[in-house]
TrEMBL record:
Residues 1-115, 183-273 form the Cytidyltransferase-like domain. Keywords: Coiled coil, Lipid biosynthesis, Lipid metabolism, Nucleotidyltransferase, Phospholipid biosynthesis, Phospholipid metabolism, Transferase. GO terms for cellular component: cytoplasm. It comes from the Eukaryota. Residues 316-345 form a coiled coil. This is ethanolamine-phosphate cytidylyltransferase. The lineage of its organism: Eukaryota, Metazoa, Chordata, Craniata, Vertebrata. It is an enzyme of class 2 (transferase). The keyword Lipid metabolism applies. The gene is Pcyt2. Pathway: Lipid metabolism; Phospholipid metabolism; phosphatidylethanolamine biosynthesis; phosphatidylethanolamine from ethanolamine: step 2/3. It comes from Anseranas semipalmata.
Length: 345
């Protein structure tokens, strides 16, 4: 949702947003192993509602040639620093030409922090749990090289505000003639498996209005166990709202899809993917009511990617990721040092 927020801000600066997505090769060369494949990333970015078009295989260093190729007036990046493998600012050329704009980086989230949460297996990142010591140690050391702490890669607590939700929400009410479809789940680490599922659900009606029910952290932890969900309820809300197929989100939806919920939202169809449905606390089927009304449908997303698989990819590459994070840190700190020296001069 940090990336989505950047795209939202960029889109507000102009009329048409083209997002350049790097290949796996480029990322491996400059940053370390990517978590998702380029095909997965192309599809994910395309599914974000502020994106008009993607430019696959965009070069890591943004040049004027690239901007001209796509008829872009300017390019936008967050106010953190991106450096090439040899430590140069990747936006130098477009900055010099006056075709660069900056947007604010989203506080309290980074890919690096999410990777840390997956590797730690604690539950301290849930929205209502007293922090445990391991996670606090992780956040304290996070982004701390031997020489200090980088403000870009470090962890700061994500604080949800109503303003942020308003910025992400579509604000559209269902219209007469819309098919109101309800889906529910954790939607943790919002990924291509979720996108494929929501896209399939979206295709079920001519005028779909999709409401996604997100379960609270404790509920997800009850049926998923371990340190799930990796992202807390506030973070998951923004991630799902950024998807172009979703019209509305229920924050902290009940696990059982009740008659009250169906009547309240005037739901005509309830969909679930091919993943296992864990019984409710009392052993009952959470989809009993929609099944009784004959409005329940299983939808095959055609994707086998799950949150578990992403975590497995991370753990498999754990050492490479840890090395990558430390390198990124060191580069950022070196830039900070150089900036400080310039100021002193």
């Amino acid at each position: 949702y940090g990336h989505s927020n950047q795209l939202r801000q960029a889109r507000a600066m102009g009329d048409y947003l083209i997002v350049g997505v790097h290949t796996d090769e480029e990322i491996a060369k400059h940053k370390g192993p990517p978590v998702f494949t380029q095909e997965e990333r192309y599809k994910m970015v395309q599914a974000i509602k502020w994106v008009d078009e993607i430019a696959p295989g965009a070069p890591y260093v943004t040049t004027l040639e690239t901007l001209d190729k796509y008829n872009c007036d300017f390019c936008v990046h967050g106010d953190d620093i991106t450096l090439t493998i040899d430590g140069k600012d990747t936006y130098e050329e477009v900055k010099t030409a006056g075709r660069y704009r900056e947007c604010k980086r989203t506080q309290g989230v980074s890919t690096t922090d999410l990777v840390g949460r997956m590797l730690l297996m604690t539950k301290a990142h849930h929205s209502n749990i007293d922090e445990d010591l391991d996670y606090r140690k992780h956040t304290d050391n996070f982004g701390k090289g031997p020489k200090g702490h980088s403000p870009w890669t470090g962890v700061s607590q994500f604080l949800q505000t109503s303003q942020k939700i308003i910025q992400f929400a579509s604000g559209k009410e269902p219209q007469p003639g819309d098919t109101i479809i309800y889906v529910a789940g954790a939607f943790d680490l919002f990924h291509i498996g979720h996108v494929d599922f929501l896209e399939k659900v979206h295709q079920l009606a001519e005028r779909p209005y999709i409401i996604a029910g997100l379960h609270f952290d404790q509920e997800v932890n009850r049926y998923k166990g371990k340190n799930y969900p990796i992202m807390n309820i506030h973070e998951r809300t923004l991630s799902v709202l950024a998807c172009r197929y979703v019209s509305e989100v229920v924050i902290g939806a009940p696990y059982a899809v009740t008659a009250d919920l169906l009547d309240h939202f005037r739901v005509t169809l309830v969909c679930h993917g091919m993943t296992e449905v864990v019984p409710d606390k009392d052993g009952s089927d959470p989809y009993e009511e929609p099944k009784r009304r004959s409005i329940f449908q299983l939808v095959d997303s055609g994707s086998n990617l799950t949150t578990d698989l992403i975590v497995q990819r991370i753990i498999k590459n754990r050492l490479e990721f840890e090395a990558r994070n430390q390198k990124k840190e060191a580069k950022e700190l070196a830039v900070l040092e150089a900036m400080k020296r310039l100021e002193e001069k």
